[in-house]
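Hi L.,

You mentioned the student needs an example of a multi-chain input paired with its predicted structure. This one should do, with 223 residues in total across all chains.
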Amino acid sequence: DIQMTQSPSTLSASVGDRVTITCRASQSIGSWLAWYQQKPGKAPKLLVYLASSLQDGVPSRFSGSGSGTEFTLTISGLQPDDFATYYCQHYNNYPLSFGGGTKVEIK
Amino acid sequence: EVQLVESGGGLVQPGGALRLSCAASGFEFPTYWMTWVRQSPGKGLEWVANIKQDGTEKHYVDSVKGRFTISRDNAKNSLYLQINSLRAEDTAVYYCARRQWSLDYWGQGALVIVSS
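Structure written out for the whole complex:
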């Protein structure tokens, strides 16, 4: 089974900061990776698919990169609405799995 | 507008059973794989099961194999999750999601609490 490891688990940042979240896969998953944003009490929302493709309607300050085993989600110019928890997920094969999450907090 | 609405959650005793439903609208339901994902209180996301468009292919996480059954009724635009032999560790919010490789639309979730 493929394990997904996110870092950091918590990140403190200020509005306007550039923020980077890392996700590592235990084996190569090509570009079969998605990023989701989740706010308390709400369902996750797809931000990025195929490692670097932005979902329709997602602000361009979000970007994804990487392939193989190492991936990053970058938020360029953190906005108040971006304080949330972010998850990566591989869909290379079964079982699908998520990273443990990165909580982005207000500094 | 794509909508996924879960129902059927509640409080169940250990060893009990429950059937979750997910009503889909706003898209061609029979043409998509569908997925269940769960989230235990205060914890991360866990993929539970997937089902192919025509229901002929199903996949499960190991921890639910033999206890959970995913199914669908394309005529009713509905997805189901039959949960048997419930354990305390199955307590979670259960989300249905549309699978377009990644999970592009999610329902609001149904809370299942397993407790005596």
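You could point out the following to them. Chain A touches chain B through 23 residues (CB under 8 Å). Chain A has no helices and eleven strands.

Best wishes,
N.
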